[in-house]
Amino acid sequence: MVYLLGKSRCTANQGGANLGETHKALVLKLKADENCTWTIERPENRSIRIIISHTQLDPNGRCESENIKVFDGSSTDGPLLGKVCSKNDFVPVFESSSNSLTFQIVTDRTNIQRSVFIFYYFFSPGTSVPNCGGYLDTLEGSFTSPNYPKPHPELAYCVWHIQVEKGYKIKLNFKEIFLEVDENCRFDFIALYDGPSTTSGLLKQVCGRGQPTFESSSDSLTVVLSTDYANSYRGFSASYTSIYTEDVNTTSLSCASDKMRVIISKSYLQSLNYNEDNLQLNDPACRPSVTNVIEFSIPLHECGTIKKIEDHTISYTNKIAFTESPVSAVITRQKHIQIVVTCEMEYNSTVEIMYITEDDIIQNQSVLGKYNTSMALYESNSFENLVHSPYLVDLNQTLFVQVSLHTSDPGLVVFLDTCRASPTSDFSSPTYDLINSGYALM
After folding, report:
1. What's the CA gap between 254 and 369, in Å, rounded?
2. pLDDT by residue (tens digit) across 318-347?
3. pLDDT digits (tens, 9 = 90+) for 173-223
4. Where in the numbering of this chain does the CUB domain appear (predicted)?
5. Structural domains of the chain ordered from first start
6. How many separate helices (H) and strands (E) can be counted in the chain?
7. Which of 62, 236, 344, 395 would suit a FRET pair with 141, their CA atoms being 20 to 30 Å apart?
């Protein structure tokens, strides 16, 4: 239920109404010098989500004298969840942790008309809509609204966090947006934030139909889909790519557990009278992506990559060849150029080696990296219920451990060398070897 608490200064529409619904949209018209407070009470085992999707407050008002405050509880004495002002750069969304939520709107003495659109609904914590949000950490990818291209679910709130490697920014392209049309996108909308969270700065709030494109200023982007209880349409389909932003004088190489990545400066190629059409790997079918730089993403077991095992080292090597003569009106002695890239994988590190041959001139570059491995503990051999670290166990209790190496090379095998247990979280003495040099100790 929703109640308007008694205040001496409140002329807002719906004042004093007992709304009672499990979800409700409030279109509030406010004047100068208002002070209105609403309280929403939820049923047991439900939470309250409140979305303030559109505000039209005094554009010149000070936040201290004109604002919307949201409290976790049945009165303004409860914990403050947040404050909304006219200059806020986000779409405010708040959730209760108690059985009630209170919001208060205060306006200053400026004689203008204000309007606020607030939507609230109850939801069950711990339940989720399939394909509703998630984390995307590859350099390119795609995602859709739940059920796409069928109508999106009602009362959904989905958040996608896109995080790419340092040195890149994100270009997001909506292949389709089909949401409820509204001039102010109050009902169903997509909110895009220029950073890792919904407080990073709003790029835009969109709805209706369209195919817009957005670009982040850094290596992270957040996408939110919010829907109400009516007029469900197809939703959206989106894809993203990464644009390299760091300065590259000639070339750079980085190695991961599943691929090598080579960045080549366009100006470097132009200085040699070449372009990206002249480049090819050992497998000519593997082509680079071209943005402000030329980028080869080379799988460790494809594109002609050569794998070599020596002692305790595994190396992966490929070659970028310049396949055609430079196009130039001036006849010069042709330079025969090759870029040889190698990733050397050892027990606990990765060595990245690249050299460029120009008429027997060799330039070397190398940096260090790490294997991309993960380790998880489970309660049983079904490996379903993940246990968070630190894992506290009793004597003689069976442990179920899963160790993964994230790589596209099918020829690699994970070997668990050492596993230790300790009664203290900092692993100070005493410690007990469960596995040592690959042997289980009883």
Report:
1. 8
2. 988 877 654 444 444 445 678 888 888 765
3. 999 999 999 999 999 999 999 999 998 889 999 999 999 999 999 999 999
4. 10-124, 132-243
5. 2-123 (2.60.120.290), 134-244 (2.60.120.290), 251-369 (2.60.40.3210), 373-440 (no CATH)
6. 1, 35
7. 344
pLDDT for 266-286, tens place per residue?
888 877 778 888 888 999 999
233: Cβ contacts below 8 Å, ≥ 6 apart:
151, 152, 178, 179, 180, 188
Where are the strands (E) in 57-130, listed by range? 67-71, 80-84, 93-95, 100-106, 114-123
Find all residues with CB under 8 Å of 77, minimum gap 6, and list them. 71
Among 55, 100, 110, 106, smallest CA distance to 79 is for: 100
Q: Which 3 state secondary structure label does DSSP give 342?
A: strand
Between the two ends of the chain, the Cα-to-Cα distance in Å is 62
Q: What phi, psi does 276 have (nearest 5°)? A: -65, -25
pTM: 0.65
Q: Which amino acid is at 350?
A: T
3-state secondary structure of 277: helix
Place of tokens 């998880």: 376
Question: Three-state DSSP class for 329?
Answer: coil
- Alpha-carbon distance of 344 to 313, in angstroms, equals 7
Sort 7 into a burial class: Cβ within 10 Å, 0-12 / 13-18 / 19+: middle
Q: Please tell me the distance from the alpha carbon of residue 327 to that of residue 330, in angstroms, as a whole number.
A: 9
Residue 338 · residue 326 · CB < 8 Å: no
By the 8 A CB rule, do 186 and 54 touch? yes
pLDDT per position as a tens digit, 108-136: 999 999 999 999 999 887 777 888 999 99
DSSP letter, residue 276 = G
- Top-confidence residue, 24 or 250: 24
Report residue 391 as tokens: 């894992």
Helix H or strand E encompassing 266: helix 266-271
